[in-house]
Every structure is written in C-alpha cells, then in structure tokens.
Design goal:
With 318 residues, the chain is an alpha/beta fold. 44% of the residues lie in helices and 15% in strands. It has 14 helices and 11 strands.
Length: 318
C-alpha cells in the first residue's frame, strides 16, 4: 500500500509543478485516471484546463493526442478514415487521434452532436467501429474534455447520455492571491510545463489501477452508496437522479480515495469526499430548482446531509 501511495504522490507532486494551488483538482484528476475513467473539466477560459491535461500526460509516459473541437469537425477526424491506396489497389485505414492513451477534446461543446457522439463508443467500450470494422483502443485509454460553461453562442451542450460517460466533472476555479503570485513568478521566463518529465510509466500506472481494485469495501458502505444514489432519484428538486453507472463510479472513486488515504478499506468519509465530482453532472434539476438557481453540487451536498452514513466496526474493515 505504501508503494502505491508513493507512486501517486510522485505523480501529484510532478503535476503540481505546473498547476499551482489546485491540490483537490489534481487529486481528483488522478483518481479518474487510476479508476480507468474519463474526465470533464468545465470552467471559464484561462484557468489552466488544457494545461492540467498536458501536465497529467507529461507526468506519465503515455501517447497523448489533442483535438480542437470546432463546428466543422467530423467524426472521421477523430476515429479515422479509409483512404484508397493506388499502388496496392485497396483501401487502407488511417487511424484517427483517438488511437492513443490520452485524448484531449478541447472545447468539446463547440463541435456538433454528431461528432460528440463519435466518442460514445470509445468512452464506453474502449473500441472504435468504422465502416463496419471494430478496432480496439489501447488498454490505457482516457478522454479528457474541456468546455466553457458561460459561453453559449456557437456551442452544442453535451447530452445527458454523454455526460453520464464522464467519471468526474471538475472545475479549476480562480487561484488565490498567493498562488497567482507564484504563477506569475514561475512563468516570467517560461512555462514549467516544458520542464516536466515522466515520473512513472504504463507498468506503474497499471499497478495503481490494480491496487484500487484490491481495496476492500464492506456491504454497509455499498448500501450507503446505493442509498445516496436512490435518494437522488426521489429528491423533489431533481428531475432525473444518478444512474447505476453513477453508483459504480462512486464506488470506484471511493476505493481510490481510500488508497490515497493509506487505507485498504473504504469508509463513508471517502464516499463523501468524491460524491460531488462523481454525481453532480449526472443529475438533472427540475424547472422550479432552476428558477431558484440551485446547482447540482448543492443537491449532492443536500443528499449527503439527508442520508445517514453507517458506522463500521473492526470486522467490517477487513
């Protein structure tokens, strides 16, 4: 357990060289990676969304590709296309940028729903079907998508079905004064992202992923997760609650949080710690709730207050 914590800490500390003052955001982005999930980063421009993705991939020896989403981007620009080979008199498949370990879809809400949907199969099944042929993606595969939530002109909001495919939704937020001064000092002569080197490889990343799956979670904690999710489906301010996929994501994220905390079992505290970034984007507010300007994050916190956590005895931690 101590070895996996050291691996995680080396990753976190390396990324923190380029992303200043965002401990929570870095931790959750790494939890998403080691849980084999996909990440949606939603915030206003200039806060480091793209830089976070670059820092993550530079810290691990991974194949990284980036696509800039625009209204004229086609699905084949992501998945690939067959081109006629005149010398061999045959069609050869040219893989798109999705055939990588980490794909950054920058400003995903600026491309059309047709192109957005080309990522659904990739994210759900780690494979791509083009022209009737299904091709597997690498074993380590992650989509990091960014979007600006305050700009609506020329954008296409992600449908709920695709939002549910994202393991977590994070926001960067403005830095505090001390962090902003450090950013200015660091970038007076260059950007620290250019000096980042990989600190672990794919083998160590798989070791982290396998360690998460070995973390024990008692039935009482599973019941707590189920109760939280079921309460979201019955809350009067919610038109649609979290899906079973959301419950599974909450379980995996809680196991990863326990691992980072140095535990080999999950407590309700870890469930609470990850509940907002895992569940908030999976909820749909009712119209009266929107009129009251409630946020999904507020509703998740209300659910946590509403559902009583279990108290674990020593035998339930084994």
């Amino acid at each position: 357990m101590s070895d996996t914590r050291k691996l995680f800490k080396s990753l976190h500390d390396n990324m923190a060289r380029a992303i200043v003052g965002k401990h929570r955001t870095l931790t959750f982005s790494l939890i998403t990676l080691i849980c084999r999930g996909h990440l949606l980063i939603e915030d206003v421009p200039g806060l480091g969304k793209t830089m976070l993705a670059r820092a993550l991939t530079r810290s691990i020896d991974l194949d990284f590709r980036r696509i800039q989403c625009t209204p004229d981007l086609m699905p084949s620009d992501i998945t690939g296309v067959s081109i006629f080979n005149q010398q061999e008199h045959r069609f050869d498949f040219v893989p798109g940028p999705v055939f990588c370990n980490v794909l950054l879809a920058d400003e995903i809400n600026r491309t059309s729903p047709r192109t957005q949907s080309s990522l659904l199969e990739c994210m759900a099944e780690s494979q791509v079907t083009v022209e009737g042929v299904t091709r597997a993606l690498p074993e380590v595969f992650m989509v990091i998508a960014t979007q600006n939530p305050v700009e609506y002109h020329g954008t296409y909001p992600l449908p709920e079905a695709q939002l549910d495919r994202f393991f977590m939704r994070l926001s960067m937020g403005y830095p505090d004064r001390e962090s902003e001064i450090r950013i200015l000092q660091q970038q007076a002569l260059g950007h620290p992202i250019d000096t980042l080197e990989p600190v672990i490889g794919i083998a160590e990343l798989r070791q982290l992923q396998q360690a998460v799956e070995r973390v024990h979670i008692d039935d009482a904690v599973l019941g707590y997760i189920a109760d939280l999710v079921r309460a979201s489906r019955e809350h009067p301010d919610l038109e649609l609650g979290a899906s079973p996929r959301g419950a599974l994501a909450l379980m995996r994220a809680a196991r990863a949080a326990a691992l980072i905390d140095g535990l080999d079992y999950v407590t309700p505290d870890q469930v609470v710690k990850v509940a907002v970034p895992v569940l908030a984007h999976r909820l749909i507010l009712s119209q009266p709730a929107r009129m009251k300007k409630l946020r999904e994050e507020d509703l998740v916190r209300a659910l946590i207050e509403q559902v009583a956590p279990p108290v674990l005895n020593e035998t339930q931690k084994l």
